[in-house]
Design a protein that fits this description.
Layout: E1 2-8, E2 18-23, E3 33-40, H1 45-63, H2 69-90, E4 98-99, E5 101-107, E6 110-116, E7 120-124, E8 128-130, H3 137-143, H4 149-152, E9 174-179, E10 185-189, H5 191-194, H6 199-208, H7 212-225, E11 232-238
Antiparallel strand pairs: 1-11, 2-3, 3-4, 3-5, 5-6, 6-9, 7-8, 7-10, 10-11
């Protein structure tokens, strides 16, 4: 398995509130680990929330006795949620901070995914398939028929999320498992990519790139070329 992760401040933001982690080496009992977190909050709070969440998860997974991927990812996110809430309650400047998180590991030919918020995981082969489901206001509006999916990217409420790590307890997490095939690629990303680049363009860039690093850098470049309105994070892995 190969991995590559990159995060970029974009063209409009003054700081980067995203944090990524990509390892093809074992983390505790998990054989590999991929995470993207997109923080929110006031001055410095968003970048702290995303980094703190990822570091808390990695620390927890590295020490845990649990070996099953889904229970382990669940426990790690709940642990991080508690720590972020504790940190925010101890410092008024951090009040209201939180973060999305999408995390994945591949074990015995299966992809296991945990998701909170609107950062996404895609499976890419000859086509592109979004595995996660956004926890966002516009996604709710799409499901009840208030807006069309094609209008979601430009909707004024597109950045409002309905779930996040660090804003309440217990945190509600979605889980997925997917059978992998040799050559499949996985993309984890923040909405700084998906709000700027269409899924079909993501597919074209990944398929036409010679390496994961080239694909990741081209995706970031495309998002910036299209406006770069938010921080852009990309983690790619090939099975």
């Amino acid at each position: 398995m190969k991995t590559y992760g990159i995060t970029d401040i974009g063209r409009r933001r003054k700081n980067n509130q995203d944090f990524v982690y990509a390892s093809d080496q074992p983390v505790g009992h998990l054989p590999n680990m991929l995470i993207v977190a997109d923080g929110m909050g006031g001055h410095n709070a968003g970048d702290l929330a995303s980094r703190y969440t990822v570091e808390a998860m990695i620390d927890y997974i590295g020490k845990a006795e649990e070996k099953r991927p889904i229970p382990l990812l669940s426990a790690a996110i709940h642990h991080a949620n508690d720590l972020v809430m504790e940190k925010a309650s101890a410092d008024k400047a951090l009040e209201g901070m939180g973060t999305t998180v999408v995390a994945a590991t591949i074990q015995a030919g299966y992809l296991y995914v945990a998701n909170v918020g609107d950062s996404r995981l895609y499976l890419i082969d000859q086509e592109i398939e979004q595995i996660t489901r956004d926890h966002s206001l516009v996604e709710k509006m799409i499901r009840v028929g208030e807006i069309q999916r094609k209008d979601a990217r430009s909707h004024p409420d597109r950045n409002i999320i309905t779930r996040a790590v660090g804003v309440g307890t217990p945190v509600k997490i979605d889980f997925f498992d997917v059978k992998m095939e040799t050559g499949d690629k996985i993309l984890l990303c923040s909405d700084g990519l998906t709000n700027m680049v269409e899924d079909e363009d993501i597919l074209h860039i990944v398929r036409k790139s010679g390496s994961l690093e080239e694909a990741a850098r081209r995706l970031v470049g495309e998002a910036n070329k299209n406006g770069g309105k938010d921080n852009i994070s990309v983690v790619l892995a090939e099975f």
